[in-house]
Design brief:
- The protein is built from twelve helices and no strands.
- With about 230 residues, it is mainly α.
- The longest helix is centred in the N-terminal third of the chain and has 29 residues, at about 25-55.
- About 30% of the residues are buried.
């Protein structure tokens, strides 16, 4: 368990400030952050092997409860300095909008949205993407977080579909408003065929909140009118 003060905003920033380089426009900054991520991943894997060894020792070795606790502590510390592991090792215990790890959950999703190839190569976690989007699909966020979520929906509709992108409809419904609809209408009127299609579908779902966002609904809408 994290001790007092460890899981506050300062603690998260101290451990993971380097991760903002993953979404930096400059390739050199992203490369440096990727190197830091690789080192963090190696530490996590080493710590995981230590935990596994503590729980599954060789026949001639004996491990006590304190050895297992020590190994788990090392793993938890390593995980807290790596993405997306930190987001699972220190999950929110209350409302998502008060979670100290919220900025890094948004960062992880923004990284996937802006630099999908780098994200896929270095930290592909579709389950993490899906879970984070679902966690964030709430209307209780402040203006700054809502703006970031609108950005993520906008980025998602403007590209060819990627695994779990469909989950962003949950976010769109949670942060529905003039800003989001304005972005979607601009995307729908753009020369980007993907944006036209995806934005049109999301706008239609926003106007029909009773309709579930399923593959069947998507195929039915796609086979019917596309003139929103």
């Amino acid at each position: 368990m994290a001790g007092p003060g460890v899981d506050d905003d300062h603690g998260w920033t101290e451990r993971l400030a380097w991760a903002y380089g993953l979404i930096a426009p400059a390739p050199a900054e992203r490369a440096a952050a990727l190197d830091r991520l690789a080192s963090a991943q190696e530490e996590v894997e080493s710590a995981r092997r230590r935990v596994n060894k503590a729980w599954h020792p060789c026949p001639r070795l004996r491990y006590k409860a304190r050895d297992r606790a020590a190994a788990q502590k090392v793993f938890d510390e390593a995980a807290s300095r790596c993405l997306p592991e930190a987001l699972w090792s220190r999950r929110p215990s209350g409302e998502i909008n008060t979670w100290a790890g919220l900025p890094f959950a948004l960062l992880f999703l923004e990284w996937e949205a802006r630099y999908p190839q780098e994200w896929t190569q270095h930290a592909k976690e579709w389950g993490a993407k899906e879970s984070l989007i679902r966690m964030l699909a709430t209307a209780n966020h402040d203006v700054q977080v809502r703006t970031k979520l609108v950005d993520l929906v906008d980025l998602a509709v403007q590209r060819p579909y990627r695994c779990k992108d469909r989950e962003y409809v949950r976010v769109a419904r949670a942060v529905d408003g003039d800003e989001l609809r304005g972005r979607l209408h601009r995307a729908h009127r753009s020369g980007n065929s993907w944006a036209q299609l995806h934005a049109g579908y999301v706008l239609w779902l926003l106007d029909h909140p009773e309709v579930p966002n399923t593959r069947h609904v998507w195929r039915t809408w796609l086979a019917g009118t596309r003139t929103y």
